[in-house]
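User: Could you check the structure of this?
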Amino acid sequence: MRKTLVYAFAVALTVATVSYTVVAQQPRSRLDAVRARGRLICGVEGATAGFSFPDPTSGRTIGFDADFCHAVAAFLDVPEVEFVRLTGATRLPAVASGSVDVVFRTTTQTISRDDQVDFGPVTFYDGQRLLVRTDSRIRGLNDLNGARVCSQTGTTSERNITDQMRQRNFRFQLITFATPKEAFDGLAAGRCDVWTTDASQLTAFRATAPNPGEFQVVGREFSDEPLTPIYQENDSKWADVVNYTVWGMILAEELGITLDIARNPGRLNEMASRDPIVKNYIEMKGGAMVRSLRLVGNYGEVYNRYFGPRSRTAITRNGTRNELSRDGGAMTSRPFR
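Assistant: Sure, the predicted C-alpha cells are below.
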C-alpha cells in the first residue's frame, strides 16, 4: 500500500512539474506586448496611392491599408500607430523577426509564404495586368515577345510574369525595382516597355501621374491576388485581434453600421434594441469594434474613401469579388456571437 502511494505521489509530482514547465514556456502573445507598449507598429508600402501614401497636407500616412492599421489599434484601445515602410523583399523578414506587429501591404496569400508568416482575412481581391504607354503596340501578354518588363523584387508579380513569358517561349528582359513607384518611374522614363503588377496599383499610379492620358492598363488579369494582412506565426491571440478587426469592418457594412452611426450612441442603441446580432456586435470585447468604426468606418466606407467613384484612384467594386457576399462578391465576415 505504501509503495502504491509513493508511486502515485511521484506520478502526480511529475505531471505537475511538466504542466508547470509547459505553462511557463508559453510565449508571450504580441497582444500583450502591443498593449504594454501603447503603440501598434504597422508595416505598409507607404508610397502607393490609394493603399498607403503621405497626406499632401499633413504628411501623415493615410490610405486603405493605413486605415486598417488604425482600426486594429482602436480595437485594442491603443492610442498610437507607428508606420514602417517596407518593400516587397523586406516585408516577410520584418514580420518573422518581430520588428513589426502586423503588415497591411498589398500582400498576396500563397502557400510558400505561409511557411514564414500567418495570413489574416482578405481585404482586397486583385489580379495582375499590364501598364503601358498609350501609344504602345502592347495590348496583352501575347504582345510581349522581346519586351523589357518592369516588376518589383520579391513579389508574386515578378514570378507570375516570368512564368507567363517562359510558357510562351518569349525572349524578354526583366528589370526589377524595390518599390512600385520606382517601377512606374522606370516605365515613365522609358527604361521598360511595360510595368506589370496588381491591377489596383497600376490603376492608382496611372491616375495620380502628372499625365494619366499617356498611360493605359491593358490585357486581361492573368493571376489571382488575394491581398491580406500578415503577422508572426503561431500566435492565436494576436491573430484573433487582426482577423476580427477585418471581419468586423465587413460585418458592420452588412449590418448598416456606419461611422456616423457608431459615433451616435442613440442610433446605435436603437439598432441594438431591434437586432440581437447588432447588440452582440457592439458589446463584444467591451465595444472593441465600435472604437474601430468610430475612427475609420466600415469596410465599404474605407473602400469608397480611397477607391470610390469620387476618388482620384477610383477602382470599381461593382461586379467584383470585393463586393459583399450578399451582393454577389466574396467579402464576408465570421459570426460575432
